[in-house]
Write a structure and sequence with these properties.
Order of helices and strands: EEEHEEEEEHEHEHEHEEEEHHH
Number of strands: 15
CATH class of the largest domain: Alpha Beta
Strand order of the largest sheet: 10-9-8-11-15-14
Largest sheet: 6 strands, mixed
Structural class: alpha/beta
Distance between the termini: 45 Å
CATH topology of the largest domain: Rossmann fold
Strand content: 15-25%
Length: about 290
């Protein structure tokens, strides 16, 4: 039979079969010896045993593999953020978008907590900067239910990863999307008003619309290990409108003369915040290269 790994539990793997039944499986020794590992999201072949027990026999080639969170075969990343409590960090948002672009995953921006004051202003900002760059936006509230139907439509039939800072409401959204779900919801902690990490392990949750969604441990920082100096420009899709006009092929849009991207920022045809974060990420990549 074929199935998808939903979670890892003490050396066993819960696998959702194509018929919709969950089997608890152990892996054949040869799979362990192969050294490729098993990840949440892996599509596997398995042999059912008694009841809902089984043995994993094979792992299909992966279309994608995220390292953090460790999820295989994801198709899109839903970046969940909030207007406040915790406040929106555009640099974290851009960092997550770069990660999604680098992994060739469809990024979706979800502004949650739209019942809070100040959300309208953040909606306008996101439309001006990110919708203009081609990113899908959805505005939700886990409290009053607004935007949940649109979010569910975006998740339908696809394998999605929810990412974003702790406290933005990922688990609360899933509790609304999944009837009967009991994902722990955390409170904000400390002077920085960051959320407590309420998700302890990565697991895939089946939606009644046919999709799978991974709730991932919250985080407020993310490195750019898989992004290089050469690949970073392509992770800012709006740059493509101007990069072909740069004087030098392979322009890094930093110190080069006659750079059309820098000109577009100067002329306000590209958002200054996005370019500023691009330079921050370039510096991080350069520092990492020197330390190796």
């Amino acid at each position: 039979m074929q199935g998808t790994v939903l979670r890892s539990v003490g050396g066993f793997y819960d696998v959702l079969s194509s018929e919709g039944t969950v089997f608890r499986c152990r892996a054949r020794g040869r799979l362990k010896q192969a050294g490729t590992g098993l990840f949440v999201g892996d599509r596997v072949g398995f042999t059912p045993l008694d009841g809902t027990q089984g043995v994993l026999e094979s792992v299909e080639p992966r279309r994608s593999l995220l390292k953090r969170p460790p999820v295989a075969n994801a198709e899109q990343v839903v970046v969940v953020c909030s207007p406040q409590a915790p406040p929106l960090s555009l640099q974290l948002l851009d960092r997550l978008l770069v990660t999604a672009e680098r992994e060739c995953l469809q990024p979706i921006i979800c502004l949650n907590k739209n019942d809070l004051p100040g959300s309208k202003e953040i909606q306008v900002l996101l439309k001006d900067v990110y919708a203009a760059a081609g990113y899908p936006l959805v505005f939700t509230s886990a409290l009053d239910g607004r935007g949940l139907l649109q979010l569910k439509q975006l998740l339908s039939g696809r394998m999605s990863v929810l990412a974003g800072s702790s406290g933005a409401g990922k688990s609360s959204l899933l509790n609304r999307l999944l009837p009967g779900a009991t994902l722990r919801v955390g409170e904000l902690s400390g002077k920085l008003r960051r959320g407590r990490h309420t998700t302890r392990q990565v697991e895939l949750l089946p939606l009644d619309c046919g999709g799978l969604v991974a709730d991932t441990p919250g985080f407020s920082q993310l490195d750019l290990e898989e992004v290089s100096w050469d690949t970073l420009p392509a992770c800012f899709p709006e740059f493509a409108l101007f990069s072909g006009l740069c004087r030098f092929r392979g322009c890094g849009h930093r110190d080069e003369p006659e750079c059309a991207v820098k000109d577009a920022v100067r002329d306000r045809n590209l958002p200054a915040t996005r370019y500023e974060h691009y330079l921050v990420f370039l510096k991080e990549i350069a520092i990492r290269r020197r330390l190796r």
